[in-house]
Amino acid sequence: MAQIDAFFKLMNEQGASDLHLVSGQQPVLRIQGDLERVKYKTLDNDSLKAMLYEIAPEHHVKVFEETGDVDFAYEIPGLARYRANFFQHRNGVGAVFREIPATILTVEELGLPTVIKRLASLPRGLVLVTGPTGSGKSTTLAAIIHEANITRKEHILTIEDPIEFVHKSEKAVINHREVYVHTKTFSAALKGALREDPDIILVGEMRDLETISLAIEAATTGHLVFATLHTQSASKTVDRIIEVFPDAQQQQVRNTLADGIRAVISQTLFKRTDIKGRVAALEIMIATPAVRNLIREAKTFQIPSMIQTGAKYGMQTLDDAILKLLNKKIISADQAYAKAEDKAKFLPFMKNSPADFTEI
Q: In what residue span(s) does the Bacterial type II secretion system protein E domain sit (predicted)?
């Protein structure tokens, strides 16, 4: 057993999502969104480096020493997998680990709207799950892929950096590929994917123009593509994709994206006030013909209005999702106000002045 495994066991016992190990500081756990120091000695650089290098594959150590950053996955059988990031800082080395549960929760167990489950049965198209870092995008995608795995006799290919949730093939055949281990880049893996007879492709992150272009191409040539972006709403997601391309190509991309897109789920996490844990609030945009026309005509600013009137298709705004959680007393008014789009709607629920006075 590696020395660092004791911290992972503590992390699991405490229900922490993240572990911070930084030279010159005590270990820190993120529990329900808050950072909590561990009662342990201050970590010195040499002992921490030895602890980290014990679990890192040799080629990742080499990359880290050459660049100062590296990502990879580490697994403790029977406990969990961990997404690891090593980095250099002023006082030496540091690392942050995100726990990836061994058990994949279903859409029902996560309490997600039923339309999320239906996305797993789409025959083709592009589905984007967006939100800030740590908002639960990977967990939502894992639930969707799990649903496809148990219901479809098809080939599912995942491309990630690093591999997070590991699915065992059920009705589907699932292959996991890790960037920098099994392939050089996301774009190289996507080019190869089109020759590997996939029905469903999961792209861990659309990071650059080429990857975005290939993902859209795959979605418009008969594949069902799931991917993530670090954007905070459906309309901003569409704009972000378009803006990556040179001006001369943007109208063509609008047309292609409008043909291929099927849904955008934008989510954020809240600390629960009723029980221990966190809960996601989701904005859901379903790409109806009317929504696709807005994308073609560069009228993405009208998408929020379309979402508000699209409840019969399973659409909902982020504020409506937050309001439901608040009315059920699952989250606090302070949290609801902090993460809402239309903050004025949540002011009547506040007992004190908002912490962010710049929003008033």
A: 194-208
